[in-house]
User: Fold this.
Amino acid sequence: MNRQKRLLLALMGASVLCAKAEPRKPNVILIMADDLGYGDLSCYGATSFKTPNIDQLAAEGQRFTSGYCSASTCTPTRYSLLTGKYAFRTEGTGIAPPNGHLIIDQDTLTLPDLMKIAGYQTGVIGKWHLGLGEKGKGPDWNGELNPGPREIGFDYHFLLPTTNDRVPQVYVTNSRVLNLDPSDPLWVGDQKPSPDHPTGVSHRESLKMDWSHGHNATIHNGISRIGYYTGGQKARFRDEDLADKWVQESKAFIEKNQDHPFFLFYASHDIHVPRIPHERFQGVTPHGFRSDSIIQFDWTVGEIMKTLNRLNLRENTLIILCSDNGPVMDDGYQDEALEKLGEHKAAGPYKGGKYSLYEGGTRTPIITSWKGHIPAGVSEQIVCTIDLAASLAALTHTPVPSTACGDSKNVLDALLGKTGAKGRHSLIQQDNGGRGNLAYRSGDWKLTKHAKRSAKNTIVESPLAKIKVPQFQLFNLSTDPAEKTDLITEHPKEAQRLKQELQALIDAGHSR
Ligand code: NG6
Ligand code: CA
Assistant:
């Protein structure tokens, strides 16, 4: 942490401490699923399987129908969540590679920093995917993995460093790879380390889950991954055990911090590929491992709730559940997600999914629950994961300097389900980092802007979606939530207004 940020933290901490004596601040548990779509929970309309624990959270709190994550891929959503800043404003915030460096500047005032200033113990458990180590160097897998979560505000971390489909399959805690035997060092790279190194191509017949695109490099646990690695055998996890580990670590964190306010960011790897739920969840739904993994995720939420109940913390804990991007079926492995989909609508009524600018890419479940403080109900207010920094700062009465969290809006009252409370009026959405594909929702109007234009005014929407679309499209979400009818020629004035507002927000460099 640089001197300026340290000083700011100390000064702000002092001013918060000097404030009038208040009742104990509520704990906050932020639960983020991976690739969970709007329609993937029974409380959001799934009918062919049940998610009882999350449904209970929703039944006891607010379920948002216009809840968003910032981007339709993981890294930019997480970047925006923790910095309160739209990821498209910062280069290098797209899907992070296995050897990626920490993409959040250490002198950025982050959401966990704000919680620390308010006197919270802060922890992150689960998927990280924001890089580790310095720019130009990346992670030193056999040494200290700094800078990392500690340098941007987390007191504690227990991580899956990248994604479960990217190498290496190890846990990181205490800024080191857990259980790493120095006599078996870990090497991670993007080139085959030796001509005879077994891969998903050379040993395809040995795989327990075959790949469909990408994901054909180093094999671990019978599954080939993105990227190559060797060594660290004792440190490697079994995919089947990840959910159990997150529960074990989350319980321990909650128990340890039960006597003072804590902020836990539980970032599940479920339901990202490779979808390999524990054996006890395999086959429990009609749609294969994709929805089996949803049941596993729901179970982890239930275990966290049980822990809170046991410790008598439910009435003192705000729980927020969300996702990092919309759903995808074939994301690189042949796990029959599409073949067994049946009538299940993973994005609910919405078009598109992961990698897309359409609603299915970013309109995702958001549920808030705080027993005795949040009334039960369904909210149509627009709220986004990027708003949690400013909103949780408001919850803890922590001032946010005008230079920090520049796109995070205080929508606390809407999150708490207060009568008449308003969420956002407008929101910028993006797909992956850097390419300039943006969507802009203002009230019920939505403009999509795909950056690259061919001579025919069409572009390829995303490397995987491969849909040709006009550069600009305009939809009215109140009459056409599925974005079927492009109104750009019928409503040129609306289109012009949205284009101008979007450009002004981009040019301003912030929107708060
Ligand atoms: C893509 C991967 C996809 C997934 C995604 C990141 C290929 C062909 N596709 O590049 O499988 O890993 O990155 O997902 O390799 S996210 O949810 O973490 O953003
Ligand atoms: Ca994701």
